[in-house]
């Protein structure tokens, strides 16, 4: 496998969906290619960063309108 | 809570017991439902903003998602987390608004020209973790900006598959595209986001 081949298989590799033959070829290439190791590592980190980021608090006006709208429409008297 | 009429939770409901909150909400306990809203409003709003890229649409999508979740709580079987169930409702609300407001952008239902798969142009390793470099507000801003620069067809797939962890099949169904298109768009989205984050996270040459 070459670098282009690795990119083609990268999605399935990150998702753990590669068959054993392709997986072995890909890992052999990774042992030899630092650029591809970095791409795999930083792409994996990209996903992790987005998954891990704690959302910031809702802006106060958005929070207030949400709760007002919900509880007016659900019938609770303010 | 800063709702119009805050009410104490019934004491028998432990705040971290989501199942009990859902059961109480199913029985019409709005205070229990409000606790669920408080718990997830940040995530749902961020998701809706990331999909629609429009604050008014994101607010509307979030409000309707929570409203519909309450009205259809009886359909929630409890075999998954409440949040997982809520996300599907919110995604549908947000996608509906995205399609309504931006009918002329690349259709979510149309295949995208795949072009050549190629290695990213610049390959540099990353330095310290983003949490070590950036405050949470700043990091959220960087991530939102990176997402906003993606074509809707890419960012929706990334959000559903990677941040909300829906399956390939379910993502395909929600977007009305093939599983092959989901995989292809997901890879491109991941590589594009990797490239955008590299600007902020590459190991400093001065370090």
In helices, the fraction of residues of chain B equals 55-70%
SSE run of chain A: HHHH
How many helices of chain B in DSSP terms? 9
The portion of residues forming beta strands of chain B comes to under 5%
CATH architecture type of the largest domain in chain B: Orthogonal Bundle
Our count of helices of chain A gives: 4
What is the fourth-level CATH superfamily of the largest domain in chain B? RNA polymerase sigma factor, region 2, helix turn helix motif
Provide an overview of this structure:
The complex is a heterodimer of chains A (78) and B (207). Chain A has one domain. Helix content of chain A is 74%, strand content 0%. Chain A contains four helices and no strands. The N and C termini of chain A lie far apart (65 Å). With 207 residues, chain B is mainly alpha-helical. Chain B folds into two domains: 11-103, RNA polymerase sigma factor, region 2, helix turn helix motif (Rna Polymerase Sigma Factor, Chain: A), CATH 1.10.1740.10; 115-207, Arc Repressor Mutant, subunit A (Orthogonal Bundle). Chain B contains nine helices and no strands. Chain B has helices spanning 18-26, 30-52, 55-71, 82-101, 130-133, 136-148, 152-163, 168-175, 179-201. In chain B, helix 1 (18-26) packs across helix 2, helix 2 crosses helix 7 (152-163) and helix 7 (152-163) crosses helix 9 (179-201). Chain B is globular and about 55 Å long. Residues 1-14 of chain B have low confidence and may be disordered. The interface between A and B is large, with 44 and 48 residues.
Task: Give me the secondary-structure topology.
The complex is a heterodimer of chains A (78) and B (207).
Chain A: H1 3-14, H2 20-32, H3 34-52, H4 60-73
Helix pairs in contact in A: 1-2
Chain B: H1 18-26, H2 30-52, H3 55-71, H4 82-101, H5 130-133, H6 136-148, H7 152-163, H8 168-175, H9 179-201
